[in-house]
Amino acid sequence: MSRPAARTILLRAALALSLLLALYAALGFLLAPRLLRSAILKQGSAALKREVRVGRVEVNPFALSVRIRDLEVRDHGGEPLAGWGSLYVRVTPLRLLHRELGLAEVRLDQPAVSLTLQPDGALNVQDLLAPSGPAAAQAPAKAAPAGQKAQLGLYIGQLAISGARVTFTDRTRTPAFRSALGPLSIALSSFRTAGGGDSPYAFSGATESGETFSWSGTVDSRPLRSSGTISFAHLKLPKYGAYIKDQATVEVLDGSLSYGSRYELAWDAEKRVLALRDGRLEVEQLGLAPLGQKAALVALPRVEVAGIDVDLLGQEARVGAVRVKGGEVRVGRDAAGKLGLSEMGPRPPPPGAKPGAWRWSVGTVEVEGLRVPVEDRSTPVPARFALEQVAVKLGELRPGPETVCPLEASLLWNGKGKVEARGPIHPFGKRAELELAAAGLDLTPLAPFLESQPPLKLTAGTLGLKARTTFDGRGAEPRWSFAGEVRVEGLSLVSPAHREDQIQWRALELAGIDAGSTPPRAVVQSVRLVAPRFRLHVWEDGSLSFASKAAGKPVAKPAATARPAGRAAPAWRTGVGSFQIAGGEVALADRSVRPPALLTLGDIQARITHLSSDPSVRSVVDVRAKAGGAAPVSITGTLNPLQKEAFTDLKVASRGIDLSPFGPYAGKFLGYGIQKGKLHLDLGYKIVRRSLTATNVVKLDQLTLGDKVESPDATKLPVKLALAILTDRDGVIDLDVPVEGNLDDPEFRFGKVIWHTVLNVLVKVATSPFSLLSAIAGGGQEDLSMIAYAPGEDAPDAAAQKRLAALAKSLSQRPALGVEIEGTADPEQDGKVLRLQQFREEHPEVKGEPTPAQLAAVELDPEALPELAAERAHGVRDALVAAGIDQARLFLVEGGERARKEQGARVYFSVR
C-alpha cells in the first residue's frame, strides 16, 4: 500500500475514533447521568417503598467513575430516613481478569441514617429487612454444582467513609431514648471476597455527647475471617440508663465507660470463631441510686475490668481482674428498718425463665480504698459511723456450689481500729471458713443500739478479737461455728439522763471460746474481768439505773421457729471453765433517801469454776471483798446458774461492816439516824428445784441511834424500845430470819420477804417485850410483865420470887432497858385482910374470928391500900437492886393504864 493510501486510512481511523470518543464522552458525560438519576428515583423509590430524592449525578466515562450527590430517602411520614452528601465510585475493569468485580475507589461523604424503634417493638425499616429466623440462620450455604464456575468476586481497592451519622430513637422506653452516632470515619483497603489475602480496614467515630469509637483490623472473605481491635471511649452511662432498668432497679446518675479489646472472627465449614480477646473496660465517676432518687448511694471514681475474653459462640466469658479504686457506698436504714441498698438489687427473672447457658469466671476481684458510711435511723438516736479504707480481694470466682474462692479483706473501723478477714469461701455454695482479727475497734458508734434496754449510753470501749468462724447454709438449718478469743477494754456506760458512770472495766477477756450450732454449744474456757466498777443508782423517784424504760410493760416474745413434726430442738450445751473478777468494785448511790446513801463493796476478788449446763456439774464459788473499804466479806459454796433446774448452796459471811452508811435508810424507815454500829452477817441460801431455803443470821454490834428524823415512811413502832429489848448486855442484837419460798411464785420477792420478817420481829418485840425477856431468862412462855401477891401481903411468895429472879436475869442481859414498876392493891381481897388486921389492932380483947358485921363496922384507913401498893413496888425494886440491877434503870410509877384496868394484888412491869 502506498504511503498516501496508508495515511488516508489512518486519518479515517483517527476520525472514526474521535467520533467514537466524542460519542462515548457525550453518552457518558451527558446521557448517562440523566439515565442513572432517573433509574435511582424510579427504581430506588419502588424498591424502598419510600420517596427517594437525588441532587445531581456525575459520570466520568474516562475515569470509569460515578458521583451521586445529595441523595435522600424519606420515610413514610415524610421525615428523613437515610441519605448522603456524596458517593464516588471508580471502577477498575482489569480485575475481571481475576474474575473479580473491581472497584478501585469508593468514597462516601456525610452519610446519615435515622433508625426508630416503634412502641410495638418494630423497626421503622422492618419492611426492608430480609426474612430472618432460626431456620434461615442455620441453613447451610449451598455448594456450587460440580463443574459450574464460581461467581465473580468483589474487589475494593480503597473504601473511605467520612462524616457518617446514625441517629437512633427507641420509643419503647418512657421517656423515649434518643442518641446520635457520628461523625464516623471508615477506611478499608484491598478488600476481596474471593479470598487470598487480608484487607486492612479502620472505623472511627463519635456521638453527639463526645463518645468515640474505633474499629480497625483486617478482613478476608473466603474463608470469612477478620481480626483487629475495637474500642469505645467515654460512653455516657446515664444516657443508656433506660436499658439498665430492665435488669436492675437502679438509677444511673453519672459515669462514663470505655472499652477496648482485640477480636477474632472465623467462619467456615471447619472452624467457626467469634471472640473478644484481652479486653479492658474502665468506668469512671460512676454514680448509682435507687429508682426515682437523685442522691447517689454508690459513688465509684474508677472501676477497671482487665483481661476480658469472651467466646460468643461457645458462650463462655473469662475476666482476669476487676478492680474498684476508691469511692463510697452509703449504707442506710430508715426508721422502719428498710435498707436503702436493698432497693437497688436485680429484678427477679420472669416466671418460667430458664437459667442461661453461659459459663463465666473472674480471676480476681479487688476493692481498694472504699469508704462505707453507715446511718441507721431505726434506733431512738440515729447511729452513724463509717468503714474506711475497705479492701477486698477475692480470687477464682466462677458459678457453682463447689467453687472455692480465697478471700482477703480489711477495713478501718470509724477511724479507730482495724478488722481483717481471710480464708476460703464458697460464694454460690453458702459456705465460708474465715480467720478473723480485730484490734482497737472503737465501740462508741454502737451506743445508739444500747440506749433502749437498759437506758445506758456507751461512752468508751474498744474491741479486739482473734477467731476462726465457719458457716454452712446448705441444709434446712444453717450450721456455724466460732472459736477464738475476745477482749473488750476501757468500757464505760453512763446514764444519759444523769450523766454518771454506771459500768466501767479495764478489760474483759474471753479465751478459748467454742460456740457452734452442731452440736449446739457455747463454751468458754475462761472469762476474766479486770478492775470492773459497777455504780448502781436509785434515783430520786425510786427508779433504778439498770431498770428498763419498758419496765412493767409486757414484752412481746419472738415467734418460735417452726420445726418439722417429731423433731425436738437439740439442747444447748453451755459452760465456762473459770470466771474471775480481779479488783472489782460495786457502789450503790441511793438518792431516794436524804441524805443520799452511798454503800460500797470493793477489792472484789472472785473466782467461779466449772460453770456448766450439765446437771451433774457443780460450780465452785469463792468471792472475797471488803465492805466500806475495810470489813471482809466472803461468799463460798456451789451453784449451777446455767442449768434449767438451778442448784445453789452458798454461804455469805461478813464481819464488822460499819452501820453509819445505812443511816439514811434508818432515818427514812425507823425515824432515827445511826450514830454508830457494826454489822455481822452469816447467811445461807439453798435452792433446790426452784425452792429456796435461806438462813439469815444478822448481828448488830453497838448499834446506837442518832437524832430523830421526821419521815413519812417511818414506822410508828417504839423503835428505841424494840432495839433496847433486842440488844444484849454486850451491845449486840442477834437476829435469825429464816426464809422459805418458791422462786416461781409471782408473789415471792426475796427482799420483800426478809423485810416483812424483820418488821414482824420488831412488832412482836414492841408489843410483847416480856415474851422476849422471858425467853432470854430461860423462862419459856412465862409472863414476866407482872407478879401476884397473897391478899394483904407486901412480900412476894415463892412463885413470884421465881418470876422476879427471871426478870432480873433478863434485865441483866439488856442493860439499856429501863423498867417501870407499879404496885396495886385490890380493895376487896386486900381490903378484907387489912380490915381484919385493923380490927384486931383496935379490939385485942376479941378472941377468934370476928363476925361479918364486926368487920363491916371497921372503917379502913384511906392510906392503907395505897401504902400496901407502894410497899409492894418498893419491895420489888429493892429485890431487883439486890439482884444487881442498877436502880437508875428502875422507875416507880403510878396511874398506869394496865394497872388501872386490871387492878388486883399485883406489881406490874413495863419496859422503856
Automatic annotation (TrEMBL):
Highest taxon, organism lineage: Bacteria
Matching Pfam families: DUF748
Gene3D superfamilies, sorted: OmpA-like domain
Name assigned to this protein: DUF748 domain-containing protein
Organism field: Anaeromyxobacter paludicola
Taxonomic lineage of the native organism: Bacteria, Pseudomonadati, Myxococcota, Myxococcia, Myxococcales
